[in-house]
Amino acid sequence: MNILVTGGAGFIGSNFINYILSERDDVFIVNLDKLTYAGNLENLKPSEGKKNYQFVRGDITNNELVDYLFKKYSIKYVINFAAESHVDRSILGSEIFYRTNVIGTNVLLEASRRYNIEKFLQVSTDEVYGSLGATGLFTEQTPITTNSPYSSSKAAADLMVQAFHHTYGLPVVITRCSNNYGPLQFPEKLIPLMILNCLKDKKLPVYGDGMNVRDWIYVIDHNKAVNLVFEKGRIGEVYNIGASREMANIQIVKLILNKLGKTEELIEYVKDRPGHDRRYAIDSTKIQTELGWKPSFEFEQAMEYTIDWYLANKTWWERIISGEYQKYYEVQYGNR
Ligand code: NAD
Ligand code: TYD
Question: Nearest residue CA, atom 5 of ligand 1?
Answer without folding.
Answer: 10
